[in-house]
Every structure is written in C-alpha cells, then in structure tokens.
Amino acid sequence: MERPVSIVKFERCYLGALFVGLINLLISWNKIQAMPAVRQAAALIGEWYLPVTTVLGFVFPVVIWYFVARRSSLVAKWIVTIVFCISVLGLLFNLLMKTFVSPPSAVLSIFAAVLNGIAIVMLFRPDAKIWFGEGLDEDDLETPLP
Fold it and tell me: Residue 136's pLDDT band (boundaries 50, 70, 90)?
C-alpha cells in the first residue's frame, strides 16, 4: 500500500523536529554538561551517563517514527501522541520556570514542538485513519482528501 499524503507529511515534520532537536543539542552540549544535576549524575553513575541517555533519547523517536510511518502501527501512533502531549507540558514548564540553557535553545525547542504538533495532526486525518486500519466515520467520508 502506498503511504498516504498525511503520513508523508507526518514523516517530514516529525523527522524535521528530530533534526531541530539534534541541532539544539549540539549548540547546547557544553551548557548541558555543566548543569549541576548532570555533573552529579555523571559523578554517581559515570561519565558515560550523558552520552548514553542522549543516544537513547534519539533512538526512541526514530523507532517510533519507523513503526508509525513505515509499519502503520496504531499502538505507535498513540505512543507518539501521548509522548507529544507530555513533552508539551514539559515545554510549558520550562518556559514558565525559565529553565532553558539559552534563548536560542528555547526558540529551537518551540519550533520543534510546532513541527511535532503538525506531525501529530497529520496522524488523525482521514487518509491516515485508513493507513492505520481505523474505521472511518460518515463525517470523514464527506471530507475531501488533499
């Protein structure tokens, strides 16, 4: 089955957000390493702590992307949706508490969240419902596809 337009758009936005997150990580790496909580964890656990958790933080979204965009997994669709909702709460908390490592980091985080939000919306469009094998409502049949 050919992937629907909404799934292709999901993929582009989701991977774009992941790329923006990687750029954010790269420009913030030294400040992250200098954070007291990170230094304390590295002292208790080991110097490998930050690199390993960082890699895992990128592996998980890639695996989820694969199952959503390439394997049409309904479970993965809901996992990515729930993780997005939790991450928005974390973003709002960081904005309110002003805990970003730098203003550019905050801007990149917001941009990545917007891209992820667009990606999530794509998962609930009528053509994406077909991709995931979900039943269509009568209202969905009247909505024209792009």
Answer: low
